[in-house]
Amino acid sequence: MTEPWYLRPVASIDEAAEQAARDRQGQLTKPPGSLGRLEEVAVRLAAWQGAPKPALDRVWISVFAGDHGVAAEGVSAFPQAVTTEMIRNFSRGGAAVSVLAREAGANLEVVDLGAVEDPGSLPGVRPARIAPGTGNLRREPAMTAEELAAALAAGAEAARRAEAEGAQLFIGGEMGIANTTAATAVACGLTGDSPEALAGPGTGLDARGVDHKAAVVRDALGLHAPDPANPAEALRRVGGFEIAGLAGAFVAAAQRGIPVLVDGFIATTAALAAVRLNPGVADWLAFGHRSAEPGHAAVLAELGAAPLLDLDMRLGEGSGAAAAVPLLRQAVTLHNRMATFEEAGIPS
Ligand SMILES: O=C(O)c1ccc[n+]([C@@H]2O[C@H](COP(=O)([O-])O)[C@@H](O)[C@H]2O)c1
Ligand SMILES: Cc1cc2nc[nH]c2cc1C
């Protein structure tokens, strides 16, 4: 059997550019380290781009959408039809991430991997329907092997389009009613944490709803017994089309040398799956925000990730990552435009 594409090595980081950027940070008119994480971000972008003075003009956002059979278990505060309605809303430019993308000058596309109701042909929406939603993971595998391969490949295609447009940063968003249940199951499968520790309100469940959701995830883990050493099978059995799409996109972005700014709980769970599929992916990830969804902290900790923002957001769509783009731009502009001690004639 030929090796799956997602095992191919990721691009390498330019250590010379990283060192040059670090040296420059040390020469700028400020006490060394005083711009904190903004310094790190600029140095990181330099390493990724192979440029001592990086740029951040072209940001690409792919929002992966799909429905979840497990919605039938009453695990979301919202009806399943919202997935398709939100695809229509993205297309019209009315969703939060639509607004943030416009504001950030980012290219936004939606990849429809299979909502129950087909939204039809819409501007800005790429039809890539795999099935009208996944199987109910409490009772059966979410996907077949072919469906998983299609979802991963759809993610890789998005990274290919991003590269063709010269993207300097890839943001993966998601939309799918009940996907926090699938993400919780995947996260439990990959970290060994308990459903009770990771399940949260998602779109707004009350405490009883969260308990029920944890019980549903516990049933799913009992049925499927996901193995942390087999992330692809964990994605297939308890994941979702958009979670697998994100994982495929993150691996492919890293292989193409496009850094990824990861969003909230679902996207970070997909990033953990991507890193488990191909550990080199970790070098190409940055984290936009810490979601209010309680399981997010555990998945971030598993990745050793320190997100940039902590705004109590819990929307998904890539919105938390998109909200961090202006901060990344500030880091780049400071790095490129501040005077050095020598230029300013200030003794250091
Ligand atoms: O990104 C997050 O951290 C996040 C946290 C809670 C909810 N969401 C979004 O809400 C939807 C899933 O919530 P739920 O309650 O239906 O599982 C899905 O469309 C996600 O984009 C996203
Ligand atoms: C309205 C709505 C918008 C969303 N965007 C991402 N997940 C969502 C869930 C709901 C319910």
- Helix count equals 14
Strand order of the largest sheet: 3-2-1-4-5-6
The small molecules bound here are: nicotinate mononucleotide, 5,6-dimethylbenzimidazole
Shape: globular
Question: Would you give the CATH topology of the largest domain?
Answer: Rossmann fold
CATH architectural label of the largest domain: 3-Layer(aba) Sandwich
| Overall pLDDT | 98
Largest sheet: 6 strands, parallel
Return the string of H and E elements.
HHEHHEEHEHHHHHEHEHHH
The number of domains = 2
* Computed structural class: alpha/beta
Distance between the termini: 61 Å
Low-confidence stretches: none
Q: Would you kindly provide a written description of the structure presented here, covering whatever features stand out?
A:
The protein has helices at 15-27, 37-49, 81-92, 96-104, 145-164, 179-191, 195-198, 207-224, 231-238, 241-256, 265-277, 295-303, 319-337, 341-344; strands spanning 59-65, 107-112, 125-127, 169-175, 260-262, 285-287. It has 2 domains: 5-54 and 333-344, Nicotinate-nucleotide-dimethylbenzimidazole phosphoribosyltransferase (CobT), small domain (5,6-Dimethylbenzimidazole Phosphoribosyltransferase, Chain: A, domain 1, Orthogonal Bundle); 59-327, Rossmann fold (3-Layer(aba) Sandwich), CATH 3.40.50.10210. The protein contains 14 helices and 6 strands. The longest helix is centred in the middle third of the chain and has 20 residues, at 145-164. With 348 residues, the chain is an alpha/beta fold. It is globular, with a radius of gyration of 20 Å. The protein has a 6-stranded parallel beta sheet, with helices on both faces. The chain starts with 14 loop residues before the first helix and ends with a helix. The mean pLDDT is 98. 5,6-dimethylbenzimidazole (DMD) is lined by residues 78, 82, 86, 175, 203, 315-317. This is Nicotinate-nucleotide--dimethylbenzimidazole phosphoribosyltransferase. Its EC number is 2.4.2.21.
